[in-house]
Amino acid sequence: MRLQILVAAVALAAASPVSAAGTDCSADVLTAIRKQLSLKAFRVEFSQPTAEGEAHMRIDYMPPLRMLQTVTSPAMPGEQQTMLVENRAFAGSGGSFEELQPQFTQSIIAEVAEALARPSKLEGYECLGTVKYENQDLLGYRFEDRTHALKDPSKVIARTIYVDPATGLPAYNVIGPLADGAKPLREVKYSYPTDIEIVAPANAPVQKLR
Fold it and tell me: Which helix (H) or strand (E) holds 36?
């Protein structure tokens, strides 16, 4: 799964001044992305509907090239996991892993490297100031995609990044229509457990091509 939304969901550094609502905060967002990616580890979680029911995804990252993705779904028997440890990738469930063939590993490496790449430039993020979200007072930053706004203003899609002002780290990244009452297309939650470790499984057999 590609996670291109990840690198945009970042925060204003705690030591930086809070910009006034309505002003451009792209530079603050860029600074915060670099702060998040400098951490030892962080976690991304979100859910999405499927034909069989809602699937939940949790992804632990340890920059620059360690990742553990865990997917649970009514359609699957238990947790399904994909792991990357530098130049080796694994897949499995229930704690049992197989090492993936090189052609699959290279694809995973490319996607993780893209997700954890430090951007050099961002544009279009507006300060919302302090806002209430999930019963928390958070700093809000919004980017609006107005591609279809002229034809139908209700179809404006926005990415809103909610930041914990105490840590300067992202708490939520919400993508969805700006229309009143519209449900988000995706809500990503961020957390920062201190016990994340991603270690290659010992003696994992190489996956056989079927």
Answer: helix 26-37
**In the 8-state DSSP scheme, what is residue 155?**
G
Residue for token digits 């961020």? 190
For 161-172, write each residue's pLDDT tens digit: 888 999 999 899
Q: What backbone torsions phi and psi does residue 200 show, to the nearest 5 degrees?
A: -60, 135
pLDDT tens by residue, 171-181: 999 999 888 78
Is residue 64 domain-resident? yes
Q: How many residues does the chain have?
A: 210
Identify the domain containing residue 59 by its residue range: 6-191
- Between the alpha carbon of residue 14 and those of residues 5, 18, 32, 169, 179, the distances in Å are 22, 9, 9, 8, 31
For residue 188, list its beta bridge partners. Answer: 173
Tally of structural domains, the chain: 1
